[in-house]
Design brief:
This protein is of the alpha+beta class. The protein contains three helices and three strands; from the N terminus they run E-H-H-E-E-H. The chain has a domain of 49 residues. It has a three-stranded antiparallel sheet.
């Protein structure tokens, strides 16, 4: 008997995006609930990771700071 190959997992490649990761999923929910911020979000990868277009990264980081968060940028 030949082994059955494992099913393939689809992979989606994202280019030219920034990732915003939080420790608390509630922060993501709060960001997505704010209409001005929701338009800056290009997508959601998980309950704690958002995709943001590079041109919107600074605006989103500034809003996080206004909300009292201390975002750390890793490049």
């Amino acid at each position: 008997m030949t082994p059955t190959p494992a099913p393939r997992t689809p992979i989606k490649l994202h280019r030219n995006v920034a990732l915003i990761r939080t420790e608390d999923p509630l922060v993501i929910e709060e960001l997505m609930a704010r209409k001005p911020l929701a338009r800056l979000i290009a997508g959601r990868l998980s309950e704690t990771v958002l995709l943001v277009r590079p041109e919107d990264e600074a605006a989103l980081l500034e809003e996080l700071r206004r909300m009292g968060h201390a975002p750390r940028v890793v490049r």
